[in-house]
């Protein structure tokens, strides 16, 4: 919707910025531990998170995408009554505490505590067998 003269101004700015970017990237060295994709490599000695219920759902419904699998887990969880959810939540809490203790030991006794009131990971909502969901913020450790 821009006129050619207005558009040329933005194209010139983009060309100048690309030259600057290429100049800066020619000297760039990624930090240690980061590969080509920019992801930090996982330490094979790090404690493993508890297993999750997702693989069994993927086995039952092999054509589901990641998002659809999460939706299916959410549906299954919402159909349970509070009394049916209770054993799973207790087991998930125990597994979460064990993982937290293992991470504290792995990190050399540093302070690592999960906020017990936080449900940002959504592990309990999709958690059929009390097995904790992957926690995205800790994948890079």
List keywords for this structure.
mainly alpha, 141 residues, 0% strand
Describe the structure.
- This protein has 141 residues and is mainly alpha-helical.
- Helices cover 49% and strands 0% of the residues.
- It is built from four helices and no strands.
- It has helices spanning 4-26, 54-60, 66-79, 82-106.
- The chain is flat, with a radius of gyration of 23 Å.
- Residues 118-141 have low confidence and may be disordered.
How many runs of DSSP E, i.e. beta strands? 0
Average pLDDT taken over every residue? 77
Approximately what portion of the residues adopt beta-strand conformation?
Answer: under 5%
Envelope shape: flat
Radius of gyration: 23 Å
Quickly give the structural class: mainly alpha
**Main β sheet profile:** none
Low-confidence stretches: 118-141
The tally of helices reads 4
Briefly characterize the structure.
It contains four helices and no strands.
What secondary-structure arrangement, pairings included, does this model have?
Layout: H1 4-26, H2 54-60, H3 66-79, H4 82-106
